[in-house]
Amino acid sequence: MVLSLSILKKSFNDFLSARMLLINLGPILLSLAFFGAVFYYNGTNIVGYCQTLLPQSLNGYSHSQGFFAGVFAWVFKVLVYFLVFWIVILLSLVINIFASVFYTPLVVSYLHQKHYPHVVLEEFGSILFSIKYFLKSLIFMLLWMAVLTPFYFIPFIGVSGVFFSIIPHFLFFKNTMSLDIASMIFNHQSYQNLLKQHRLKHYRFSFFCYLFSLIPFFNFFATLLQTLMLTHYFFILKEKEC
User: Are 124 and 204 in contact (CB under 8 A)?
Assistant: First the structure.
């Protein structure tokens, strides 16, 4: 935990630098514009579609007159918007992680020059390699989340289903960002050894970084901070190899 907080402090200082703020601006504007447009123009349609997924009796009840029917319709609409809001948080991270594939070389170079000039960089990947791995991991995550989707509409189970979606999303975050960053610092064999020797530590630190993605609104800014944190983490491990 001490190491995690130390890395967070150092990363946050780097995050506030003019160069990093400029790099972060593009993905933020892209995410806000895309999701804002989609859900502004389709919010009513999304609620209507979700109503069709209800059992026929409940679907009919949600359109009937009366106090309790009105309360039911209102509660259902709130739950749908909560689900939509949760999906926005998850998908915004997907877009931001994809954008990070392109600016990670700049982040690694910046931190290398500023904090770790004595560390010899190795490399076993490329941007094309990272994009291919990103797409493969994205397909796996979407399939897993699709399996969980029906549970969102089952009373009492629905809320837990939303939080179960964290598991594939976290693994997507950890695997794609770790490979993207580490492939610019280690050679392939060193990276595989690192995953074996620091498996639990790597999961803990990655989850610590991932938690920033779950903070509403800040999640639009969080990916660059997470990239900085993971880059510092890998550089520290690389230093121990020297």
Answer: no
Q: What gap in Å lies between CA 164 and CA 179, rounded to an integer?
A: 24
Q: How far apart are CA 24 and CA 100, in angstroms?
A: 9
User: For 54, phi and psi rounded to 5 degrees?
Assistant: -70, 155
What radius of gyration do the chain's Cα atoms show?
Answer: 21
- For the entire predicted model, the pTM comes to 0.75
pLDDT (tens digit per residue) in 7-52:
899 998 998 888 888 887 777 677 767 777 777 777 667 666 666 6
Q: Which CB contacts under 8 angstroms, 24+ apart, belong to 88-94?
A: 88/35, 88/39, 89/213, 89/214, 89/216, 89/219, 90/165, 90/169, 91/35, 92/31, 92/35, 92/219, 92/220, 93/169, 93/173, 93/213, 93/219, 93/222, 93/223, 94/138, 94/172
Q: How far apart are CA 50 and CA 52, in angstroms?
A: 5
